[in-house]
């Protein structure tokens, strides 16, 4: 990481952190997002009940509005769904699944895409042409459609949706990283490194890659928000996660059947949380872009 | 020019062929459709008979070549559940989807262009900031969530709008259209608006960015110096240059609208091809799924091809440079 401090474009990490803190909306978005992560990953500790442990769920308590009390004395602050699950607990577990899917698929897409982008920029020639043709082809199809096709083929499952999301997202990283790496590759410090007779891979991963990181960070933030949104959409359509691992999208879909009868809380409450996550991640990405000012 | 077009058409055909392989093998690996058709008391002999009838006992590659040769004759097989050719089912449902998509496109342009121009002309005002915030939110919110809130607000709470279906339709040259009846229009507004939001967000962003660039250009300064009225500068000089990127992006994004129509149609129970796909997935109607996917891939490849060719006509640099970096 030491070479980040020498980057000619982005400034030192401390300088960047100072600039980040001076933008209130960025700080708020980051705090909100971290809060979601804490309550999501801490779900088993803070949730009033385990909504997927059938012994704790009572069908007699189904479809209760927010604030109702179970005969066992448990208060359903956010109501219950059609199977008598406490919505608050279900949502906490849902946040967890949505975040796991979003973060994991975003990270894997980042690794694959960055690697492909760096290789394309480094090798140039036919490797570059071939890889970028694949990227072009991939990006010419709408992400939702490709993900949809993949999930039709693969079926439901956490691993399958993560795979589908990585497949639709790596191309964004690859294209962006290649662009930045080409620019960085033409800078003096790369010439200097070549002059020192450093190996090609070493220059690529130790010198060029760190200078691409600000841009990668921006793309990653936005893509993660997109992954969460896409996962919710696919789960809503019944194609994403299995009913045993309900994400926020699946919770919303479950509530959709009750929407017409005025039982809004089953859909709307998880939806609001979903929006919170997506908007905070998007605002974060937007502000990071301004702060790091990468050439996107 | 001819060389460029031939090259692109050949490329498109290769892409199509690869996609048919992927789609066919992918879809035919999942599930076993025999169990959907055979009744529960069906014994082994009856199962074998059903398998033979459906052609599922032959090796997969053989099934693929049968499929491919049928495809070239425009036959994508019969739907398992509907019992009629999958392709005719698609064409039966397509007008509803196209109607929805075109209305969404019109809405995106109708609202997006004026908002984008306004935001470009007055970039630092509060209204302009609101417009940009709106475009960011419209772009990042999941489509299904927007549709859901629309139904909750306008159908359940206010009772102004119908939440499902197409309403009354009129037969125009053998095609059922909703937009020409009052009831149909009433049904159309909400889904079309929901579908238009992403596109609208893109149009607003592009228009604003284009405005910021164009209004500082020399030819606009000269037009002003010539004493041409501001209104005329805006409608002819600015607009012409603004529209080139917008038209290209819309051409490419139209496919995205068709893709998102799957989501919107499921929410609003709009009887288009997207809803058909989701229903087909639910019952594992493989010929119908394959037919839809092939159809959509075909549409995309043709759409991309047309955009490419159009673009090379508009901008010779694409054709001569060849390499888009």
UniProtKB/TrEMBL annotation, chain A:
PROSITE patterns: ABC_TM1 (PS50928). This is Peptide/nickel transport system permease protein. It holds the Pfam family BPD_transp_1. One of its GO terms (cellular component) is plasma membrane. It comes from the Bacteria. Residues 95-285 form the ABC transmembrane type-1 domain. Keywords: Cell membrane, Membrane, Transmembrane, Transmembrane helix, Transport. It comes from Pontivivens marinum. The chain crosses the membrane at residues 21-47, 97-122, 134-155, 161-183, 204-228, 264-285. GO terms for biological process: transmembrane transport. It is found in: Cell membrane. PANTHER family: ABC TRANSPORTER PERMEASE PROTEIN, OLIGOPEPTIDE TRANSPORT SYSTEM PERMEASE PROTEIN APPC. Belongs to the binding-protein-dependent transport system permease family. It is a multi-pass membrane protein.
From TrEMBL, chain B:
GO terms for cellular component: plasma membrane. It holds the Pfam family BPD_transp_1_N. It is found in: Cell membrane. Residues 94-307 form the ABC transmembrane type-1 domain. Gene3D superfamilies: MetI-like. Its main location: membrane. It is a multi-pass membrane protein. The chain crosses the membrane at residues 12-31, 98-121, 133-156, 185-204, 242-268, 288-311. One of its GO terms (biological process) is transmembrane transport. Belongs to the binding-protein-dependent transport system permease family. PANTHER family: ABC TRANSPORTER PERMEASE PROTEIN, DIPEPTIDE TRANSPORT SYSTEM PERMEASE PROTEIN DPPB-RELATED. This is Peptide/nickel transport system permease protein. It comes from Pontivivens marinum.
